[in-house]
Amino acid sequence: MKLEGKKRVWAEYQKEIPDDHFFYVRSCIRQTFFAGSEQTFLKIMRDDLGKDIYEDPRHTTCTGIGYHGDVVPFETIQTVVARHFALATEAGYKNIAISCVTSFGIYTEILETWKHFPETLEKTRENLFRATGRVFDLPVSISHASDIIYKFRDEIARKAKYNLVDVRSGKPLKVVEHIGCHYAKMFPKHGIGGAEFPHVLVGMIESWGGDVIDYPERRHCCGFGFRQYLVQANRGYSLSASRKKFESMEPYRPDFIVANCPGCAMFMDRWQYTLKELDGITYGSNETGIPTLTYEEMAGLILGYDPWEMGMQYHNVQSLGLLKKMGITADPAKRFLTKDGSRLPEPANLLNS
Amino acid sequence: MSTVTKHVVVAGGGVAGMEAAGALAELGHRVTLIEKEQKPGGHLKQWHALFPDRRPADDVRKYLSRRIDNRNIKLFTGISVEKVRKQGHDLHIELSDGSALTADAAIIATGFDLFDARRKEEYGYGIYDNVITSAGLEDMFNAGRITTADGRTPSRIGLVHCVGSRDEKVDNNHCSKVCCVTAVKQAIEVRQKLPSCEVFCFYMDMRMYGPYYEELYRESQEVHNVNYIRGKVSEASVNINNRLVVKVEDTLAGRPLRMELDMLVLMVGMEMSQAGTRLAEASALGRGINRFLETGDHHYGNNLGHVKGLFYAGTCTAPMNITDTISHARAAVTETVRYLTTR
C-alpha cells in the first residue's frame, strides 16, 4: 500500500470549510439512534473550539427518507429545504452545518439541481413564498458536521485528554471507518477525500493516534439502504450486507468502527446483536462485539467527555473494553443513572455489557 | 522524386512523425523533425512485442530509425512545437525553446498520451502495490521478469479492458481500439513466460477488428488457456495478506464474482496528448468531441487540418494501431506533397 498514492487522491478532494458561524441542522433520526451525539458536537464546537453555531427550533426534517422512499416529491423536498435556508437567512447565517448524511446528500443534490436548472430554483422560491411568505438566500457553504470536526481535528488533538492508543501496549487502536453513501458517492467533489478513498474520518483517526484498517469490503454498503429497511421483507438483504462487512473486517481485529452517517452507525451496531441471535456469531476481540461509534463520540472521548453523558451506553455493542483500552475510567454502574441518580431505562440484550 | 525542394516541419517524433519525415526526405524535401522527448520513437520505445504476431517491437523501431537516417532530415529533441500560424504562403512555427521556424508546410504528429490510470480511483492504481498498467507490464517483459512488488512470481493475474476508454465517468466515450488486442497479446505472453500463472481478461466486448486479431484471440483460448470474463471490474482492494481482491459482475453467467489476484493489469487507453492539446489551443485548431484533432473531412480528408499547408498524421486524430498509423502518415505525406506542388 502506497500512502503517497492515497495522499494524492486526498489532495484532489478538499473543499472549503468555513472557520466559524454555522447554522446547524439536526437529523430527524440521529436523536433517537445516538441521543447524545448532536449535543456532543454542539458542545465541542462551542466549549472546546469557541465557535458560533446556531440552531433554530423551527427547523424540521428534510424529508429525505420520504423522498428516497418515493413518498415525497422532489418539488416538495426542494421547498422544505428552501424553508431551512430561509430560517438561516433570517438568522443571518450563510454556512450550513448538517448533522445527517442523508440531509447532506439532499442539500447538495438540490443545490446542484438549482445550479444546472435555474428555473427549478425560481419555482421553489415561488412555492416557498406562496406557502409561507418566506424568502431565502442561497447558502455560501454546505458542510457536513464531520467535515467541520475534520477541519479542526488537529486543534482537537492538541486539547486531547486521551488518544486512540492502547494504553497498555502503546500501540495505535485499529479502527474501521465507514462513510455514508450520500456523503460522497453522489457528489465525490463534496466529500473530503472523494468517494473511493474518503479522508474525512481517516484524517480524524490518524490525527488522534489510531490506525485505519483498509479491508476488502471497506466500500461495501453498511446495510442501511432505504429500501432495505423501509420494506420489512427486504431486511434480510440489509443484514447480509452488514454481515459481509463484518466478516471482511474481522481478520484485522478492529477495536471499533466509526461512521459519519446515522444509518451506517445504527445498523453496524444493531445488526451485530441480530447476527448473534440468528447465527450465534459475535464479532470482535474475544467475541465481545465491535463497538460502533459516531465521529462525535470518538471526538468526545478524545476530549475527555463522559461516555455515559454522550449516550454511548445505548449502543447495542457496549464500549467498556474500548474505554479501558484507551485508559478512560467510566463506572459501568453509572451507565443507566441520570446525574441526580434516577434510573434510566436499560436496554435488554446488550453485547459486551 | 519531387522536383522542387521544400521545407516541411514535422511536429512529433513518434511512429507517425518518423514515417512522415522519412517519406518526405525520401522525396527530396528538407524536413525538420521536432520531438519533445530526448529520443524519437514515441510510445513504441516502451513496448516489448507487437500484436498480432508478437514480433519484437525493436523490429519496427529499427525500421523507423533507418527511415529518419536521411541527410534531408534535421532532428531536434527535447523541444516541442507550441504554435503554428499562417504567415503569407508560409507557416510560422513557434518552439518551446523560444525559437521559431518558417516552413512551406507542416505535419502535426503529436500522438497520444496513455490514460492516467489514477483517474479510475476504484482500481487503486498508485495505491495498491500490484495494480499496474499495460505499459508497466511491457516494462516487466522488457526486464525479463514478471513479479509482484515484493518479488514473488504471480500465480493469478487479471487484465482489465477499457480502462479510460468507453467510459463516460472519465469523459472518454471513444474506443481506444488497441487495448483489447493488447490484452490478448499480453495474456499470451504471460502464459508463455509463466505457464503456471492463471490469466483472466475482464472485458465489455472483444473488438478484434484488425487482420489476424480474431485468430490471436482464438489462439489465446485454445492454446494458452486464457480466461475471458465478460464484465467490468467494479473495484479493487487488498486483503490482510496484501493480495488483491476484485469484484466483477460476470454478465454471461449472470452473477457477481469476487476473486483474489496477485496482479491487476489495467489496459489503459489513448487520449489526446497534452502536447497536442497545447498546440491545438494555441493555434486555434479544431478538436472533435473526443478531444483529438478534428480533420477536414472524416472520410476523404482525414489528414487535412483547417489551415492551408498544415496536415495531420497518426494518433493525434484518433486512436489507431501502428499499421494504420504508418499508413496514415504516408497519406499525410501524399497530401503534403500535393499541396506543395500545386500551391
Main sheet makeup of chain B: 5 strands, parallel
CATH architecture of the largest domain in chain A: 3-Layer(aba) Sandwich
Please indicate the percent range of residues of chain B in DSSP E strands (runs of 2 or more): 25-35%
What is the number of independent domains of chain A? 2
What is the oligomeric state here? heterodimer
Approximately how much beta-strand content do the residues of chain A carry?
5-15%
Helix fraction of chain B? 25-40%
Beta strand count of chain B: 20
**How big is the Rg of chain B?**
21 Å
Helix content of chain A: 40-55%
Runs of chain B with pLDDT <50, length 5+? none
**Which H/E pattern describes the elements of chain A?**
HEHHEHHEHHEHHEHHEHHEHEHH
Overall morphology of chain B: elongated
| Mean model confidence by pLDDT of chain B | 96
Q: How many separate helices of chain B?
A: 7
Q: Label the structural class of chain B.
A: alpha/beta
Give a quick account of the main beta sheet of chain A: strands, pairing sense, barrel closure.
Answer: 4 strands, parallel
CATH class of the largest domain in chain A: Alpha Beta
Largest interface, counted with CB-CB under 8 A? A-B, 19 and 16 residues
Outline:
Chain A has 16 helices and 8 strands. With 353 residues, chain A is α/β, with parallel strands linked by helices.
Keywords:
heterodimer; A: 353 residues; alpha/beta; Glutathione S-transferase Yfyf (Class Pi), Chain A, domain 2; Rossmann fold; 2 domains; 4-stranded parallel sheet; 16 helices; 45% helix; B: 343 residues; FAD/NAD(P)-binding domain; 5-stranded parallel sheet; 20 strands; elongated
